Fold these 2 entries.
Entry 1:
Amino acid sequence: MGLGKNKITGETKIPRHIAIIMDGNGRWAKRRFMPRSYGHKQGMERMIGLMERAFALGVDYITVYALSTENLKRPQEELEGLFNLFRNHFKEYMARICARGVRLRAVGDVSLLPDDVQRILRQSEEDTAHFEGKGINVAVAYGSRNEIVHAVNAAVEKGEKVTEESFSRLLYTADSPDPDLIIRTGKEVRLSNFLLYQAAYAELYFTDKMFPDFSDKELDKAIVEFSRRTRRFGKTDEQIEKKK
């Protein structure tokens, strides 16, 4: 497929909410005989670049899978490297993005993180709480099954039956629409406990690119592919055409 076919044009349908599983940072670094922490640093820089590109294209919400609950079982040295990224770079990087009027939310069981990292995330949330219409969800210490169990327990405590709509409001992502497009880098073809409930009708896009190599052009390519797809939401082609 020629490169020109992957360019964003005025006819391209831009997803309102993109979620990204940022996989492959450690493997990318290993191939370069560098420590995994170097890959995570490059991944954070690429994450910021992609956010800037996505918002410039008209995306309203971005959710990034930064650290899963399963990742917390990794060697302590690697975890400290990840936590140091939050300590040393997160606030500075996010200030660049949130200056656009973007609200930041940390979604996950943040209580599992070191106290100082929790404070950094909470402060970023407070600093951007007044923004509306655009948002970043940083999924950290996040697991979708844990999220669903948390929501179920919240419903039980209220003693109320739930609908799909009311249950969605009990999830960590309550303030965001469901993702339209989920991108996973790094060759793996699975969701890995990410947004399982919210992903019911998301379009999925998988690429062999390791996350630090997932350029703005690669993002454009994913969005163009999304634009080509017909989202039926259970309806027939005829029903979709009639609605146009």
Note: The longest strand covers residues 61-68.
Entry 2:
Amino acid sequence: MANEKTYLLEIVTPQKKIFSQQVQFAVFPALEGEIGVLPHHTAFLSPLACGKVKITDAEGKNSYCAVCGGFVEVGKNSVSLLAELAEFASEIDVERAKKSKTDAESLLAQAQSPAEKAAARLKHNKAITRIAVAKQAALSKIE
């Protein structure tokens, strides 16, 4: 149910919609830096960087999501995050992400072409983003 203190946030990947709820606040990793969005924010469109999305739901609870690539579109009291990768902290397999980070570092060391280096950096960024989001979520449970 919408009200003056919340807005609809939807997070969509190429595979499926992973989130659709009223929220009080969210922070997104844009290419220019982090962008915080409150209800009735000015409309805009921005490319996403790899990073953490912090979501404060209608009840004031925080959750965290790893995203990489795509766009965030702020409209009239709604936000659509269209991401190549979007994974909530509760879904992240930290051991798998650590292995992916190690694999990416190895690929980066062996990369010959600019394309190989870019692919290895992207894999590395995705892995460290997942690890950071999982750590942030674990720390917020302690607080």
Note: The first strand starts at residue 7 and ends at 12.
